[in-house]
Amino acid sequence: MSSDVVPVEIRAIRPDRSWYALYLGADAKVFVMVVESHVGSAIERYLFGQKSDRPQTHDLIQLVFKGLGVTVERVVISEVKDSVYYARLILQQTNELGRKVIELDARPSDCLALATALKRPIFVTRAVLDQVNDQSETLERSGDWESQQE
Q1: What pTM does this model have?
Q2: Which residue from 44, 9, 51 is spatially nearest to 30, judged by alpha carbons?
């Protein structure tokens, strides 16, 4: 793993009518990503261990990966340009021919949903971390900080 990436975790999730705010934390810095409502509700469901009656999109992707012998290794939030985040989904497939690592460009929200569902690590590049505003105080003032840390 490159030293140019830092592990992060979802510290809090806040729904709104048409979007969710995800507070991602690395060491002492927390930043916010806004995701579409349907992906945010999937992430929330995975965070709290809730099941749906029928497989949703991210559940289906997990089933396809499993059927193909593919595992999600990690997620890297790699860039932010004009307030738009970019991410890489790192997959691995091992079979009789050997080990193959696959790196895909993917929406950060989808990457976060898969990483949360599969309990896989989430990373952010130092360049992104340097660019984002620290929202630690906002999260701490809201009272969500302690509840998400336990």
Answers
A1: 0.88
A2: 9
